[in-house]
């Protein structure tokens, strides 16, 4: 018996009911984009081989999509990292080189970004969670729900899913872009919130990440609760993906998940070490990604905006340093890809000020400190309990003394860095052994120094000039009293000075 057209309609309707796919998903057009961002976590997920992680949803997402083994951020603190992936520009290019809560800001409020690009293309755009970039008016999302940082987790992960459901309903027939920014795993590492996780990990069930270098019952408790935060995050992602499926948009949605930077432990967040810069990144796009693909190339959160614009059929502005990920998503071998990954830190606020750059290639990592052998205030937030912003997940003096000798030496070097550090990431992935003075590695040192200098020149990095470094640091150190926070019209001088320098050079 030959089926009639009505029979085919019935079959398609049944498939739609079973798979959650709507008829519009079969039509060609601009895909929806769901961008999921977690806070302060590196690749401590099951799909990245972490033995303590309990992240079944993200693991499944990776098994159905593409996992990027070497994904990096250009700055390992919230505001600069977020401004970077939203604008597609390095922090020194957009101006957000410190925390928005400390009045650091972009040079120009008219800087194009994901919201302005997609609004103009007819997308309905939304943000759930904090923005944390100055000025917020530069990002004209159509919808912004749960705008606080929510570090105390007063809004549950279920609230984020409910907000996503409202947003998708509001989008109607328009293609949508939705960025969902969860507070986990930012400090405080809260053990359990609204019953999640159901069975939290304890300190005797985990070990600190190997790049931290210290180990004690006190620190293991922090690590356990960090993993509990990640499990709670995973449950939030599960609810979010369920919401997407219930809306019948899964088949026409590009899903991008990544962390905004590494975890807040010693030699992590705020640094240019791997623990701060390397993040998880997973992309799932039905019909466009091959399930279970793992890519080893150096990728960046700067690639997110070019990827979204390309998916939406829009031109990628030539000034953006990122690359569309589409060839990698299709599991192709591109003719050319980036050889180097670059990063910056300024310490992000006056009491943690210290300027450093890093560049890594497939094997080696160079760290450049333009004010060598001076006090690294950012390191002190982790290593000195007398620091006004010492974090509970740092290392106490007793814990440091109990650490292996190579860890103590690394902490000393971090506290007062030399001009250059060089690490062989193949043989020393946790960056314990500085090879900058080793003549056997002179070629790698000089090659990365040249790459860094060329990049600074090409991207018009103001910190390429020692005077700009010195002036910036002097102003930061002069404002460690925080009086500026109560000054309504206070404006860091770099915002105008660096913008002017960049326009002239």
UniProtKB/TrEMBL annotation:
PROSITE patterns (UniProt xref): SULFATASE_1
Give the gene that encodes this protein. betC_4
- Keywords per UniProt: Calcium, Hydrolase, Metal-binding
* Domain named Sulfatase N-terminal: residues: 31-313
Q: Which family does it belong to?
A: Belongs to the sulfatase family.
- Gene Ontology molecular functions: arylsulfatase activity; choline-sulfatase activity; metal ion binding
InterPro entries listed in its UniProt record:
Alkaline_phosphatase_core_sf, Sulfatase, Sulfatase_CS, Sulfatase_N
What is the protein's name according to its record? Choline-sulfatase
Enzyme class (EC, first level): hydrolase
Q: What is its EC number?
A: 3.1.6.6
């Amino acid at each position: 018996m030959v089926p009639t057209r009505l029979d085919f309609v019935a079959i398609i309707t049944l498939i739609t009911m079973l798979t959650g796919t709507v008829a519009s998903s079969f039509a060609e057009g601009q895909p929806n984009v769901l961008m999921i961002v977690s806070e302060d976590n590196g690749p401590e997920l099951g799909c990245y081989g972490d033995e303590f992680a309990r992240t079944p949803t993200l693991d499944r997402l990776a098994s159905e999509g593409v996992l990027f083994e070497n994904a990096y951020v250009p700055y390992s603190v919230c505001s600069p990292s977020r401004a970077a992936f939203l604008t597609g520009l390095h922090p020194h290019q957009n101006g957000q080189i410190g925390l928005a809560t400390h009045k650091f800001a972009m040079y120009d409020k008219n800087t194009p970004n994901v919201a302005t690009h997609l609004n103009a293309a007819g997308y309905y755009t939304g943000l759930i969670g904090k923005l944390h970039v100055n000025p917020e008016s530069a990002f004209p999302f159509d919808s912004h729900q749960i705008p606080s940082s929510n570090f105390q987790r007063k809004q549950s992960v279920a609230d984020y899913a409910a907000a996503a459901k409202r947003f998708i309903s509001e989008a109607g027939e328009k293609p949508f872009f939705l960025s969902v920014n969860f507070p986990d795993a930012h400090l405080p590492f809260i053990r359990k919130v609204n019953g999640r996780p159901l069975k939290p990990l304890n300190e005797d069930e985990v070990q600190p990440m190997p790049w931290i270098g210290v180990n004690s019952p006190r620190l293991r408790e922090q690590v356990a609760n960090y993993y509990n935060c990640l499990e709670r995050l995973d449950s939030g992602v599960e609810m979010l993906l369920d919401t997407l499926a219930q809306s019948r948009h899964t088949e026409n949605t590009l899903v991008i998940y990544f962390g905004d930077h590494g975890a807040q432990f010693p030699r992590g967040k705020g640094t240019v070490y791997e623990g701060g810069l390397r993040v998880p990144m997973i992309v799932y796009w039905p019909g466009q990604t091959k399930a279970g693909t793992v890519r080893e190339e150096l990728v960046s959160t700067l690639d997110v905006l070019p990827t979204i614009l390309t998916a939406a059929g829009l031109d990628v502005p030539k000034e953006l340093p990122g690359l569309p990920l589409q060839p990698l998503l299709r599991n192709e071998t591109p003719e050319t890809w980036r050889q180097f990954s670059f990063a910056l830190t300024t310490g992000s606020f006056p009491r943690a000020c210290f300027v450093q750059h890093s560049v890594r290639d497939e094997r080696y990592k160079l760290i450049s400190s333009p004010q060598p052998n001076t006090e690294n205030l950012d390191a002190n937030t982790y290593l000195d309990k007398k620091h006004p912003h010492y974090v509970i997940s740092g290392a106490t003096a007793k814990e440091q003394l109990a650490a292996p000798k190579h860890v103590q030496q690394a902490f000393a070097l971090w506290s007062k860095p030399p001009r250059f550090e060089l690490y062989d990431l193949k043989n020393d992935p946790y960056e314990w052994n500085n090879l900058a003075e080793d003549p056997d590695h002179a070629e790698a040192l000089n090659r990365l120094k040249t790459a860094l200098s060329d990049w600074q020149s090409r991207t018009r990095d103001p910190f390429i000039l020692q005077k700009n470094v010195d002036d910036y640091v002097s102003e930061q150190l002069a404002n460690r009293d925080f009086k500026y926070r109560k000054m309504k019209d206070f404006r860091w001088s770099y915002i105008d000075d660096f913008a002017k320098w960049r326009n002239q050079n």
